[in-house]
Amino acid sequence: MFDAQCDLAALVYDDNDDPDAVLRDFAADLKAQGTRVVGMVQTGQCADSSLSAVLVHSGETLLLAQPPAPGATGCKLDLSRLQAAGARVADALADGADLVIVNRFGKRERDGKGLGFVIERALDTDIPVVIAVSRASFGDWIKFAGGMSVKLACDRHALDAWWRNVSLRTAARIAPDHTTVCEAFK
What is the rounded distance in angstroms from the CA atom of residue 72 to the CA atom of residue 57? Predict the structure, then answer.
């Protein structure tokens, strides 16, 4: 599933970090520059059952929390809503993308559910992926990614530097400065 040629980055965050704001601003800036960004960024809180995700390619907000039970505090992730949101990202990915953003890596992805299929689909088509990963889940992430992931600090500087390198490598693959032997025989 993952290999050394993939461009996979984990934006590793602690409790006091806001990976959603970092990813949201990053996506907005890339889109303003004409980059085709596909994916989703978490918004809302479990505390008030407003847990949602914004599709960065369309701006649409999708509720991810289950309706609260009477007298319940907090929320519970609705796996079917998460899967439906992932399917929307996968559909957008089929139309082409330069980058995929996945809101979080968690126990659903660790257990083979959640948005793991979106990550696989993007990497299978050589599209870079960045995902927010809590420091507490980083060990599970490394197992999931087969060790083939860049670890980024949860700040814009680290994310921008990673993207610059990925963009340069991608541009070099698309527009080589010379014709290769294989290209000459095509």
Answer: 33
pLDDT digits (tens, 9 = 90+) for 139-169: 999 999 988 899 999 999 999 999 998 987 7
Domain parsing of the chain, residue ranges:
8-175
Residue 120: burial class (beta carbons within 10 Å; 0-12, 13-18, 19+): middle
**37: how many CB neighbours lie within 10 A of its CB?**
21
Neighbouring C-beta atoms of residue 145, cutoff 10 Å: 22
3-class state of residue 41 by DSSP:
strand
Can you tell me the distance from the alpha carbon of 91 to that of 80, in angstroms, rounded to the nearest whole number?
16
Could you tell me the pTM of the whole model?
0.84
The class level of CATH for 8-175 reads alpha beta
DSSP 103-165: EEE-HHHHTT-TTHHHHHHHHHTT--EEEEEEGGGHHHHHHHTTT--EEEESSHHHHHHHHHH
Dig out the tokens for 65 from the structure: 């929390």
